[in-house]
Amino acid sequence: MNSQLKCCFELTDIDVETDAILQAMEELLSPERIGTTERFIVSHSLLGYKYQEMANISSYTTSYIKELGSQLWQDLSTAIGERITKKNLHLLLKQYNNKINQDYSVREQLSSEIKAQLSQLRGELLQFPNDALPLDSPCYVKHSLIEDQIYTELQQPGCLIRVKAPKHFGKTSLLHRLSSFATQQEYKSVYLNFQEADETIFTSLNQFLRWFCINITTQLVLPPDLNNYWDEDIGSKVSCRVYFEKYLFPQLDCPVVLLLDEVNRIFEHPNIALDFLPMLRSWHERAKNVQAWQKLRIVVAHETEIYVPLRLNQSPFNVGLPIALPPFTIAQVQELATCYGLDWHNNLGIENAMLLQAMVGGHPYLTHLAIYYLYLHKGEIALEQLLETAPTQSGIYRHHLQNYLVMLENEPDLKAAFEQVVMANESVQLNALTAYKLESLGLIQLKGDVACVSCELYRLYFQQQMFSLRNPSCALVKPNP
After folding, report:
1. Residue at 25 is within a domain
2. 227 shares a domain with 112
3. Euclidean distance between CA atoms 469 and 474, whole angstroms
4. In a shared domain, residues 79 and 111
5. Cα–Cα distance, 257 to 192 (Å, whole number)
6. Cα–Cα distance measured from residue 206 to residue 63, given in angstroms and rounded to the nearest whole number
7. Dihedrals φ, ψ of 446, to 5°?
8. Which of 32, 135, 334, 477 has its CA 20 to 30 A from that of 266?
9. How many domains does one find in the chain?
10. Could you tell me if 366 and 360 are in contact, meaning their C-beta atoms sit under 8 angstroms apart?
11. What is the pLDDT of residue 308?
12. Which stretches of 294-384 are assigned E, i.e. beta strand?
């Protein structure tokens, strides 16, 4: 069990004891002295966390947490008249409570403010699994070997890392953690999501690269100075390179990690992709010979293989470290269930994990949503009931599935191709562009040149919907756009 899950799993067991200690600390010092970060350090110290582990699940550096903790122990030592350290914090404060006859029920004495804070904390930690998971979420399931490999590679000068996964597979959550890791290493980090760019940005390479440079400059907290380095005579790609070499790099005294999310948006604009993607590769290769470019580490996240035709010696997708985020394993499904207080390590739990895996194929978002609903309605609904209605208009995935249905209705060619895959008893060969679009949506998996439905949930739902659309009189429930 990783440290984040450990935190969530043990939270209810230490709530009372932790708050007794925090309340005693407020009496020793003052309520204003014990802020949110101090509470975080104390509660995790009591759980046996090291400062490095605290940094790994927060947005703070190890040095900052250590400095804050050391000052807190010093202030408490002065107040109590005995030496307090991270290791004996629990014992000494408990002894102090006994000395001043504070042997009472902590639950009854908890102030409404602390209760509200605890309630808010649980709500934030176990929030509805819709967007990227916050850094402090205990429900983030780590791909340990993959992520450790990425962290190691990020420390290599001029590295290029390519992260590929379908929608809702955790790419953005991973990039946020890479940004946090970069901060811990005292690197600069810049996160760009290409879905945030206006469509007009993609009208020309010059427009796009200026947007690209201004966004990076702004996140580095530097004033943009494009006009002094941009020269139409040498072209926008060379101007962009010069801007990095002559303006950005000289002002950086540490490496910078460039996190590029939703790069597949660029695939849809060949006029941009045919120049921008080879430019990334040339930057990666430039780092082999030019020291300034060793400061730059690039992470590219995309949903599927590139379908824009590039020469082998120009593509950034055949160099660097390739990473494909896999579906959850049975063990990871159990780990996520544990986060929500569900015991899926006994025989019944293992069976539940296998049933859920069989329905959603280990899809992280679909897995998370099912476990969240079981947690929300604990004791009221069994997994079998949830899975029985899962591929229907009344199931927990109805909005997710209806979004796909509406999208396919607006894309007749795509719908026809996916219908062919859904209705087939074996894998189907599709043209490259259609396969790209369906794979990027997460609806199919490609095995070589052939496609199959990515999970049983999609097969059952779309078989029923496509049959109903062909035979309207047989449809029990029409889709609700």
Report:
1. yes
2. no
3. 9
4. yes
5. 11
6. 42
7. -100, 130
8. 135
9. 4
10. yes
11. 47
12. 296-302, 321-324
Q: Which residue has the tokens 């009591």?
A: 46
- The reply to whether 13 falls in a domain is yes
Q: What is the 3-state secondary structure (H, E, C) of 326-338?
A: CCCCHHHHHHHHH
Q: Are 349 and 226 members of one domain?
A: no
- Our CA angle for 130, 132, 137, nearest 5°, is 95
pTM, 2 dp: 0.69
**Residues 203, 207, 211, 213: is their CA dihedral positive or negative?**
positive
| Residue 80 and residue 13 in one domain | yes
Residue 2 is predicted with a pLDDT of 43
Q: Specify the residue for token string 């929608």.
A: 167
d(CA 435, CA 419): 13
Asked whether residue 460 carries a pLDDT value surpassing 90, the answer given is yes
Does residue 214 share a domain with residue 304? yes
- Residue 318, token pair as written in the block: 């055949």
Q: Of the residues 367, 389, 411, which one is the last residue of a structural domain?
A: 389
At 45 the three-state DSSP class reads: helix
Determine the structural domain holding residue 344 and report its residue range. Answer: 330-389
Question: Distance (Å, rounded) from C-alpha 132 to C-alpha 365?
Answer: 10
Residues 257, 263, 265, 268, CA torsion sign? positive
> What confidence tens digit (pLDDT) does each residue in 388-401 have?
999 998 899 998 99
What's the one-letter identity of residue 377? H
Highest mean pLDDT among 17-31, 136-150, 357-371: 357-371
Taking 3-state DSSP, the helix, strand and coil percentages for the chain, each rounded to the nearest 5, stand at 60, 10, 35
Distant-in-sequence, close-in-space partners of 474: CB < 8 Å, separation ≥ 6: 467, 468
Closest CA to 154 of 71, 257, 66: 257
- Phi, psi values for residue 258, rounded to 5°: -100, 110
Question: Taking a C-beta distance cutoff of 8 angstroms, is the pair 243, 229 a contact?
Answer: yes
Give which of 225, 247, 240, 249 is closest to 276, Cα–Cα.
240
